[in-house]
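Entry 12.
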Amino acid sequence: MSLPAEPDVIAPDGSDVRILLQLGRGSMAHFELGADRVSRAVAHHSVDEIWYILYGQGQMWRRQAQRQETVPLRSGTCVSIPAGTHFQFRADSSGPLAAVGVTMPPWPGAGEAYEVPGAWPASPRA
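Predicted 3D structure (tokens):
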């Protein structure tokens, strides 16, 4: 399939989502956060994700129990987000930040993600 021209939904974190393909054990989506925007901090109940950054620059904060880190994001960066990990990301002022994310198992729908305290104040909801 081709990348949809317009977002299908807004993710619980506030990013634009274009739904791609899904199989029985995983799904794939394209996420984009506008320049100078900060996502809401969330965690997932049961879904593991792997993100690959396509373009843009920014940072991702992740926390598991007492361990936390902030990693730079730029084209070619790959990050994991295991279930239960608190995470938040932001795009710098140079332009939007986009990633392809693989979700295992497939995204189950509303209620999978829940808001958590984050590292930065989130951008206002659009």
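Annotation: The two ends are 28 Å apart (CA to CA). The domain at 18-108 is CATH 2.60.120.10 (Jelly Rolls).
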